[in-house]
Design goal:
about 280 residues; alpha+beta; N-terminal domain of MutM-like DNA repair proteins; Helicase, Ruva Protein, domain 3; 2 domains; 13 strands; globular; binds zinc ion; zinc; zinc ion binding; EC 3.2.2.23; Ribosomal_uS13-like_H2TH
């Protein structure tokens, strides 16, 4: 499932072919994804210029010249493919339409942007730009982890009195938006905090360590994604998926990478999700 860095990588890959350009033709091939698609969606997109392509948590937001904003969520298996335009050093011809190509945008400049989603947990919606932030999917979100609204003071206040484990609290999108299982595991490992620590017991000193590590882990992943946009692996025009090595995630039974630790990575299940951690480094 794409997490925040993957979605940011998709956004950066789409910027040169979408931002400032007009959607010459939109093709919508089915009435619904996870939920029904907006009425007359193709008509409402065609002829619109993309003023800005933004990201909020794991949602892409395209502000259109006619005053509407297109919201896109990749869901579990949604993929964005770009063809027919210069992408780094590669030129991609339009491939033959695939079975799960649900929305196709032909952009001014020659690029074709295709949303393909085999499992259809993705979503798209159109809403007035002026009230985009109050869309039901966006209104419930906490601050962006890379934004100014997320700092030590906020985190301590938001966790105060919480009797849930820190792992579950950081996955709570009301508390901080866009953090997923992989990057929370990596963050807690680097911070030396047990995933079982009760959220309300996190002190100001620990919060002061945790916040910059969250930003660092996400920034490193976004950087890796940015590199992938220039990489040969993107030659098929698919955006957002990249090779990334993790220090603790998905390493159950393997040796801890901390020099001199000698511990073994453990996996426990919390709130139905796997937590990977080193019992020595994260007591
Ligand atoms: Zn260790």
């Amino acid at each position: 499932m794409p997490e925040l860095p993957e979605v940011e990588t998709v956004r950066r890959g789409l910027l040169p072919v979408m931002e400032g350009r007009t959607i010459l033709q939109a093709q919508v091939n089915r009435p619904d994804l996870r939920w029904p698609l907006p009425e007359r969606m193709a008509e409402r997109l065609t002829g619109q210029r993309v003023l800005a392509l933004r990201r909020r948590s794991k949602y892409l937001l395209a502000d259109l010249s006619g005053g509407e904003t297109l919201l896109v969520h990749l869901g579990m298996s949604g993929r964005m493919l770009v063809s027919g335009a210069m992408l780094g050093a590669f030129h991609h011809d339009h491939p033959a339409p695939q079975k799960h190509d649900h929305v196709v945008l032909d952009m001014e400049g020659g690029a074709r942007v295709t949303f393909n989603d085999a499992r259809r947990f993705g979503a798209m919606d159109l809403m007035p730009s002026e009230s985009a932030e109050s869309h039901p999917l966006l209104a419930v979100l906490g601050p962006e982890p890379l934004g100014n609204g997320f700092d030590e003071a906020y985190l301590v206040a938001a966790l105060k009195g919480r009797r849930t484990p820190i792992k579950a609290a950081l996955l709570d999108q009301h508390l901080v938006a866009g953090l997923g299982n992989i990057y929370v595991c990596e963050t807690l490992f680097r911070a030396g905090l047990s995933p079982r620590l009760l959220a309300g017991d996190l002190g100001p000193a620990q919060a002061a360590v945790l916040v910059p590590i969250i930003r660092e882990v996400l920034a490193e992943a976004i950087e890796a994604g940015g590199s992938s946009l220039r990489d040969y692996r993107q030659a098929d025009g698919e955006l957002g998926y990249f090779q990334h090595s993790f220090r603790v995630y998905d390493r159950e039974g393997q040796a801890c990478i901390t020099p001199g630790c000698g511990g073994t990575i453990q996996r426990i299940v919390q709130s139905g999700r796997s937590s990977f951690y080193c019992p020595q480094c994260q007591p």
